[in-house]
Amino acid sequence: MIQLSFPFIAAMVGKNLRYSRGVKCGEQSNGNSKHAVFILEHGGTISNVVIGADQSEGIHCKGPCTILNAWFEDVCEDAITLLQNSGTTNIIGGGARNAVDKVVQHNGGGKVNIESFCGINFGKLYRSCGDCPHQMMREVHIDSVTAQNGKALVGLNANYGDVARIDTGTNSYTNLRSACDTFKGNNKGSKVTRVQVNKHNDNCTF
To answer: What domain range is 53 assigned to?
Structure first.
């Protein structure tokens, strides 16, 4: 176990070592980048890391990034938080378990590709931010994922034009309640309203 006293900001190959911050999870206490284990700069890449349970935030990407084979033993607030204004982030391989709410939190804009990822015991594998102060259209593409005991694979904001393309034929689901839920988001930090559950529509293709 490698315990970090501050976020490690770099592109790196982790050699499948376990990294942590040595703090107890606050369970939905809305941490920020200073609480993350890793922060990736614009265009950064991280691969072959294990994020231990004693942390509040996992990986934060300040711009488009690439995350390869990152494993999250016990998700606290979010496993991955994306802050890019535009561009494409790729999350390939790896997995996460025990996310009370979200695995991937998309606060910025642009597109996210999630491929060959495994999620076990989660609220949402991907969520477009429902109440961020700067809202915009977001896009996600999901294929070749394994999802077990999840409430929803994707949560989108219909009113901001979010789009999800989910290649269901390549995915494996066990006890997944919904492939895609749509919400009415806001930019005021207010509670969001769910619009549709597990429905094919202009926002969700699966």
So the answer is: 2-24+33-205
